[in-house]
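Chapter summary example.
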Amino acid sequence: MKALTYHGTGRRSWEDVPDPAVVDAEDAVVRVDAVTICGTDLHILKGDVPEVEPGRVLGHEAVGTVLEVGAGVRTVRPGDRVLVSCISACGRCRYCRAAAYGQCTGGGGWILGHRVDGTQAEMVRIPFADMSLHKLPAGVSDEAAVLLADILPTSYEVGVRNGNVGPGDTVAIVGAGPIGLAAVITARLYTPASIVVIDPDTGRLDAAKRFGADVTLTPDQAPEEAVRALTGDGFGAHAVIEAVGVPEAFEMCTRLVRPGGHVANVGVHGRPATLHLEDLWIRNVTITTGLVDTSSTPRLLDMLAAGRLDTAGLVTHRFGLDEMQDAYDVFSRAGETGALKVVLFRG
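The structure predicted for these 347 residues follows.
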């Protein structure tokens, strides 16, 4: 089969690799019908995730059709249409029993496209299939469903939920890429008083407005003063979500948050950021980090099927699966191409 493989910093190839096969009784082999590229894949190509070995098939998000299952798989069968979760879960370790699947110590967690071959291929082996695949309702399209493999649960769990967003809050989101925009969508579920999105790209700020942001700002528009002015008491944002993964964005978040507020870091960081405890120690600020657990995926899928989660517009570019290199080129130059999410479909 063909797959997108990593060959060291800055090098990738769409090439022939062996077909996946059931190795363990809990495995499934899935034909990839739709797949997308994540900002984390770009971080891998930049060398920010050194555990990824050359030769690894990248990708951790897909929708597909089950081709084969191991003898221990009970919840899916060949022919089932499924969402492939970005997180695999053994279901038995102490973290999985607490629904903290991202921290699985039984061989799961973020493994696809990281420690085992991933989804940017014609087929993929899914370990722990019972816990890591979700059957899709007939009325949910591949394009809509693939957004629930990672960015929607990540923005919801690691951003909105960890940030303790509540009714009437002022929410600031730094970064208007796919995760930041998904954070706008999921923050609105909690009816905050206002959502402010900060990004240097005016095209992405326009997208944030379309998804429900009340105020959009570039970094040179004094965002700290603007956010304080939005709140009746002038103290700043109740919840601030970092959705970029660069030091400057994280440090801005700590300046935007009010005393007693929450900073929820979602971005993947490849460089150290300065934590200004000399300013923060007295302000009762909660800072959270996290890898998505995808425990919310069934609920989000139900909302999508019921028409309560509007993801239309997040996908800006579509390709055939064999156009993987072109899709990477477009996604990696988002500032020039206007790409938000790119989705590739089986021909």
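To summarize the output: The domain at 2-150+293-345 is CATH 3.90.180.10 (Quinone Oxidoreductase; Chain A, domain 1).
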